[in-house]
Design brief:
Blueprint lengths: L4 H7 L14 H7 L5 H5 L5 H20 L4 H34 L3 H13 L13 H9 L7 H9 L2 H6 L11 H5 L9 H10 L9 H11 L2 E4 L3 E4 L8 E4 L2 E4 L5 H12 L2 H15 L6 H13 L4 H10 L14 H12 L3 H5 L3 H15 L22 H13 L1 H4 L6 H9 L5 H9 L3 H10 L1 H4 L2
Antiparallel strand pairs: 1-2, 3-4
Length: 461
């Protein structure tokens, strides 16, 4: 292994910082994941359990509107619900600020990178009203505590999470021969969305060893998984398809329908060699290169299988492999990573972000991210953000990065650093003569800082 501390901070962390020294070893980076999550403690984000109170209140007001239609109470409930949605929207913007504060001030930057990687792997979002704001609480509960645990535990926590059930319409899925379907009336048929994404995105991969029959059988096995009130996981036997189901030539169920059958198939999918390879490839592409060294993918998949899907061990294998330390930096930083690493290099004070009102959050962070190609917590589809570098270097995205680099820092930092110093802070020994010259020749601090942040050397990992 050819460990390089500055490269480690840029490729596997949140970027170089004038406050936090880069890691001294890969072992130190792995060890940092085992300590307390001090960044989350310092910059808290609402948990989904607390967020459910917002959902419950929204549902109460919606029910009041339906049952008291036309009354003063119903009219008042409409206004109250709008206020509730607005408060949740403002809170969601504040959580973005907290994510960036964690990014800037964490002493375990690998934790932030892994949390966002796995949250993207298990993309889920609300579709309307207050539930649209549930992305960060979902990440806080289902993803962040499990980034060093067994993958099967994260798989169950996300696939059976109320937000995922809502996002992929699992609450609408009813077994064709279930007790509820037999009763007739207004019912919804079998929905394959969750089953398909579990196989295609979450575990085996697009080219995994499954068929359409596997998708349907898994979808039938998942019937019964739904949401109770206020958006809590619930298993309803009357919605479950009776009989056994066969997924990848293994049979599940057959007795009285139970969520244990769902948990069993998820565990088996998590332990499948195709899942190991799919996840190994995704990790290698995200952190190292769009076309990763096959030996690196092999090593990660082998470590996954040897440890039963221990994500902490797989992360260690990633950092131990020589291919991970190729000095050629080819990956382009996605927008969130670009902005986060810039804020970290500038050591933006916590209060500078926490004091931003909704208008300024939109102007300085949310809208620029969208122009760069990342609409915050509003994914295009369940496959999350693209990994291909070409997705981030389109003309509009590059223009948005340049515009943000030369305009936003002066709104967030009272006294911008000397560009000649900042180029070393932001890039260390990985700077280039062209960037050094630009920093030296800059006519103003804001211009020089912007040129450093907009440079190809800063854009790549």
């Amino acid at each position: 292994m050819l460990f390089a501390s500055q490269l480690a901070d840029i490729r596997f962390g949140c970027g170089l910082s004038p406050v936090h020294a880069p890691p001294a070893s890969a072992a130190q980076m792995v060890a940092s994941l085992q300590g307390p999550d001090t960044a989350a403690q310092r910059f808290p984000i609402e948990t989904f359990e607390i967020f459910q109170n917002r959902i419950a209140e929204s549902q109460r007001l919606a029910k009041l509107r339906r049952t008291k239609r036309g009354s003063p109470k119903a009219l008042a409930s409409i206004k109250e619900r709008r206020v509730l949605n607005k408060v949740a929207r403002i809170a969601q913007g504040g959580w973005l600020g907290q994510h960036f504060n964690r990014w800037i001030w964490t002493d375990a930057p690998l934790r932030e990178r892994l949390s966002h990687f796995w949250a993207d792997h298990f993309t889920a979002t609300g579709k309307a009203g207050v539930i649209r704001r549930a992305g960060s609480p979902y990440m806080e509960d289902a993803i962040r505590p499990r980034i060093t645990g067994l993958f099967e535990d994260m798989l169950m926590a996300t696939v059976l999470h109320p937000l995922m059930i809502h996002y992929l319409d699992q609450q609408k899925s009813i077994g064709p021969n279930s007790a509820r379907a037999v009763k007739g009336g207004k019912v919804t048929g079998l929905n394959e969305n969750l089953a398909r994404e579990v196989l295609e995105l979450h575990t085996l991969g697009v080219n995994g060893p499954y068929t359409q029959d596997d998708v349907r059988e898994l979808a039938e096995l998942l019937t019964g998984v739904t949401n109770g009130q206020p958006m809590r996981l619930k298993f309803r036997k009357d919605l479950a398809e009776p009989g056994s189901e066969t997924v990848l030539e293994k049979t599940y169920g057959g007795g009285q329908a139970h969520i244990r059958d769902v948990q069993a198939v998820l565990r088996d999918l998590a332990r499948h060699p195709a899942t190991a390879r799919h996840l190994a490839w995704k990790l290698a592409v995200h952190f190292v290169a769009d076309t990763p060294d096959p030996a690196l993918v092999d090593a990660l998949a082998a470590r996954y299988m040897d440890t039963g899907g221990d994500l902490g061990a797989v992360t260690a294998a990633l950092l131990e492999h020589p291919a991970a330390w190729n000095p050629t930096r080819t990956n382009v930083k996605p927008p969130l990573q670009f902005v986060g690493s810039a804020l970290r290099a500038l050591a933006v004070p916590p209060e500078a972000l926490s004091a931003l009102d909704e208008r300024m959050l939109r102007r300085l962070l949310i809208r620029p991210l969208a122009l760069m190609g990342h609409v915050w917590e509003k994914p295009v589809g369940p496959d999350g953000l693209p990994e291909e570098d070409a997705a981030w270097i389109a003309p509009q995205g590059i223009a948005a990065r340049l515009q943000w680099a030369v305009s936003a820092p002066q709104s967030l930092v009272t006294d911008l650093p000397d560009p000649r110093v900042f180029v070393r802070t932001a890039l260390g020994d990985l700077s280039t003569p062209a960037v050094d010259f630009a920093a030296e020749a800059a006519e103003s601090r804001w211009d020089g800082v912007g040129l450093v942040l907009a440079s190809p050397a800063f854009q790549r990992t």
